[in-house]
Amino acid sequence: MTHEQEIGDLTLESGELLPEVRLAYATWGEYDGSNAVLVLHALTGDHIVTGEGGWWGEVVGPGRGIDTDRFFIVAANILGGCRGSTGPLSLDPGGQPYGSRFPAVTVRDQVAAEVALADALGIDTWHSVIGGSAGGMRALEWAIEHPARVERLFLLATSAAASADQIGLATTQNDIIRAAGPETGLDLARRVAHLSYRSEFELSERFGRMVQADGRWAVESYLQHHGAKLVKRFDANSYIVLNEAMNSHDIGRGRGGIAAALGRITARTLVAGIDSDRLYPLHQQRELAEGIAGCGELDVVSSPYGHDGFLVESEAVGALARALLTA
Predict the structure, then answer these.
(1) 152: part of which helix (H) or strand (E)?
(2) Is 69 an annotated catalytic residue?
């Protein structure tokens, strides 16, 4: 069930005041004062982690790797999103939708909103903070900026800072939306993104050079399907805002560099990457694993599904989550 929490005005890193911020969130399980787990979604995910419409139902649930019979799970829709939290679809103080006028937010701004949510829920310390991709960015910021509030940290297919490759892909997608308009642009941007989410091997094995009866390449049809699917459930302005927030990601900014920032993490940490991930390659997770004192060796999940492996490989990811949460 979705809840909404008013967290008040939020001063952004830019200095701009974002008024009357609210976060949509959902919970599972019972809170006993020490078993709260924060699950942070990626770019186009949301707070519905498990159950009907859930994006990680094979990992989160009764008896799953993240066991809702044992832990109290909290998931919030990201600041700047479009599933109930304050974002471009929200009304400005004048009563009009922000749309493209929504202020730029950073990963650190998004975490500041989540900190306010945790305070409102009466959660002083997280048993675990878990995130993949963009969710991993926020999980890192939680553990660096609020180390006393994070006991365990699970980082999946993420990085210490957005790379030139990642920024280039994101800015190109944003420019496509601005040039082609919200519907066509978001459709096309998602196709570009989806190529980076999957591996060359999988696409070759699955589609090869197949042509459908209607004359379209099979892989072309597949990408068109995913583009049209996102248009039906996501806001183009939110997509731009969230891409720009991900581009802002750099844990070393203002902290003396990446190594110094990682040195602030005190949580017991597990870092995992996907061996076929071409968007967040393994060297980025290796940097995290080697730089965090409470982390062992990098865990590598073998998968043909590229970056999306952190969502698809539920058995392997669930086993890693269980190992960390019960340690």
Answers:
(1) strand 152-156
(2) no
